[in-house]
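Q: Structure tokens for this one, please.
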Amino acid sequence: MLLKTSYFKKEIWKQGFRSTGWIGLAYFFILLFLLPLEILMEKSKEDNEMISYYQNNAQDLFFINGEIQLVLLFTVPIIAGIFACRYLQVKGSADFMHSLPVKRSSLFIHQYLIGITMVLLPIVLVACLMWILHGMIDVNYMYQPMDVASWLYYTAMCNIFFYSFSYLIGMLTGISVVQGGLTYIFLLFPYGISMLIMYNLDMVLFGFSEQNGSLLGLFVLFSPFYWVVQLTMNHAEGIVTWYYWPLSVLCIGLSFILYRYRQTESASQTLAFSIIKPIFKFGVTICFMLLGGVYFGMNQQQIIGWSLFGYVIGALLGYFLAEMLIQKSWRVFNKWKGLAIYTGISMIVLLSLVFDWYGYETKIPEAADIEGIYFSSGYDGYTFFEDDSEKQPNITDEALKQQVISLHQKIISEQIGANEQNIQFTSNTVTTQITYYLTNGNKITREYIIPDRTELDQFIVPILKSDAYKQANFSWLYEEKRTDFKEISVNGVDGRQVVKDQETIRKIVEALRKDYLNASYEDVLESYRYDSGTIQFVDGTDNYYHMPIHEAYDQTMQVLKEEKLARWFDLK
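A: Here is the predicted structure, written as tokens:
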């Protein structure tokens, strides 16, 4: 007679619930207070103002106590992952669990499922309560059944990903505290490292623009923390997070593979695998070096000497700190050979940037290779509020292209603003940005701080005075047959007035088109400086456009006076 044994190990589940059950219970009761009970409390004091508030602002269930839900999403699954891996990291427990007549694969699956049950079961129960609540009382102005499904989907996705990632890190270390620390470090790593690299490049490369870091900026979008914050800030709509499901599966698969090769003796070791020790050590060293360079560079006005000091101190601190963590001892200062190799490689990389071996600082494309240029003088305010992804070339005229190239050559040849620590900031100090859109589809962006703009007026003013540049900067105003503004708002220092009459809007648009082209450069600049009044345009798709008004805009002022709208302005 064959003896069949069940794959389900009841005693392991009992033991697991004793050690991690408190996480699930605490999570359930906190969610119970945050959502169903909070909704009942709000319902009990129902009034028209409160109903209107929810109708106008609540887009999903993350609106209710969203800040606390955010904290729970960041902590509960990671804590559950840490406690689920405790059987690997406590020596006595590791020896006992692996002496049981249970296959490693079975043990892995049981422990993983026990932990994830602690973060999934509470949200499923709370979601059921929310559906029941919706069926029993009228809370339509707070949420709909689909909102519960959406909340359950996103919360489960975040919990599974964070838990699986924490579990994966748990396979790499034999200390629970290190597991928690490394989990948060790696989750923040895409954002942190991209910011550190951009800040450091900004210090050592003349003309570096953060807009050049658009590729680095993409790493920010891969940070799960960024998406979770967006989620709990009522920005769930449009969030693309499906790839966290396959990433979770990948984490589970890698965890299983690592577990198969992990030695039981690695319990209480900082890192469970020797092969990752140098990666960890030099990774920590690089991060601390970049952080040290940014800290001393920013605090000492980007003086290269202080930046180098920061790099050295940061590298030393990071290297020996990582060594101490690995060795679990402070007596590591004799292990300097690896640091010497690292320092040599780092110095070569750093010197290549400081002395511009790659020609970054002097690179200016040929006029024939330029399709268009986006130029911001920095003190005209024309496009100050535009997002970089929305910027378009505002110079396509060949003569103006050459003017911008001449300006760029002047800045580079005289190293204008290269020593930022020596700049005396005045009202004439501006930041100029130049983006070349090349015929091969690439972009080159440079950004410079000009200490005194008047020194470059001979290059800049002809650009700003040209009709082509003006029309390009306010293309929305000069588009042919642009008559789809559904309303405008005349904003002055004493108040504002909304105008929906299409004939009045048409007259104002026509007058503004003429006045702006006829205005002198000084008048346009003054209109931005004093901000005495603006007109806001809203088109049919709810896009908003703004334009400052100056008293020199004669035709516009005449129309405003005729329509009794000029009273809001306090113009000279």
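A few notes: The CA atoms of residues 353 and 496 lie 52 Å apart. The first helix runs from residue 10 to 34.
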